[in-house]
Amino acid sequence: MRLFVAIEVGSLPGGNSEAPEHLTLSFLGDVPDERVDRVSSALDRATRGVPPFDLVLEGVGAFPSRERPRVVWVGATRGGQETSALAGRIASALAAEGFSPERERFVPHLTLFRVRSPEQRRRAAALLSGAETPPPPRALRVSEVVLKESTLTARGAIHRTRAAFRLGRPEAPAGPN
Fold this sequence. Notes:
The chain has helices at 36-47, 80-95, 118-129, and strands at residues 2-8, 22-30, 53-64, 69-76, 109-114, 138-142, 144-153, 156-166. The protein has a single domain, classed as Cyclic Phosphodiesterase, Chain: A (Alpha-Beta Complex). It is α+β, with helices and mostly antiparallel strands. The chain starts with a strand and ends in an 11-residue tail after the last strand.
């Protein structure tokens, strides 16, 4: 199954139907059923001891660059460091389970839209130049991380939560030596 780890965000004003309602912390790709329990155990360990935090999504940017946008996104301002630290803990826990770390440096963001047409290219240029007003800032409390399954269909991806990991739980006690 195709899996990723995320923070649920909900709808963001100014997005569109293809914009996800989550901030991806790690994309795992296709994972065999027999490894899902190990992924869940790694996420349980990674999220223990991490306190809930506030996150503010505002401003726009683009990957790979503002001059050649393929993805237009809303960035994380307040809570961005906490989000990056959480993504790093998750990456380390998953690497211990044999998952390869992502090649790109993690940038906390929420995808607004992918640039796939001339119309989207014009909208990207307008947003990135300031000619179009970006979505208003959005504040949320991050209190859990979810493991999501993504099923690709002709109408787009369908996401289903496989597990949730509440932040703020104490670290697990060390096992016997």
